[in-house]
C-alpha cells in the first residue's frame, strides 16, 4: 500500500500507470477544488451580469441619442474604452 510520500519524505510521489490510485486526489482535495471553482463561477456570473446591464443601457441610449447628444457621446466614449480594454483594440 502506498503512503503518498516519496522515499526521501518530501511528499512528492511519482505517478505510475500501474499504481492503485496513488495519483488520484483525495475526496477532501476534490471538494476544495469544487469550492474554488464555485467561487470563480460566481465572479464570472457577476461580470456577465454587469456587462449585460451595460449593454442594455447603451442599447437603450442609442434609441434616444438624438435627444441627449452629450450623453450619447459619453456612452460612445465608454463603449470605445471598453472595447479597447476587453478586446485589445479589435
TrEMBL record:
Residues 1-16 have a biased composition (Polar residues). The chain crosses the membrane at residues 40-65. Residues 1-27 are annotated as: Disordered. Keywords: Membrane, Transmembrane, Transmembrane helix. The keyword Membrane applies. The keyword Transmembrane helix applies. This is Uncharacterized protein. It comes from Digitaria exilis. The lineage of its organism: Eukaryota, Viridiplantae, Streptophyta, Embryophyta, Tracheophyta.
Amino acid at each position: 500500500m502506498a503512503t503518498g510520500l516519496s522515499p526521501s519524505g518530501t511528499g512528492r510521489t511519482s505517478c505510475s500507470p500501474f499504481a492503485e490510485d496513488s495519483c488520484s486526489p483525495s475526496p477532501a482535495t476534490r471538494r476544495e477544488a469544487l469550492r474554488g471553482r464555485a467561487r470563480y463561477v460566481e465572479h464570472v456570473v457577476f461580470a456577465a451580469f454587469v456587462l449585460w446591464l451595460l449593454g442594455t443601457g447603451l442599447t437603450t441610449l442609442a434609441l434616444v441619442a438624438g435627444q441627449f447628444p452629450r450623453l450619447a457621446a459619453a456612452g460612445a466614449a465608454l463603449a470605445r474604452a471598453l472595447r479597447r480594454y476587453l478586446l485589445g483594440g479589435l
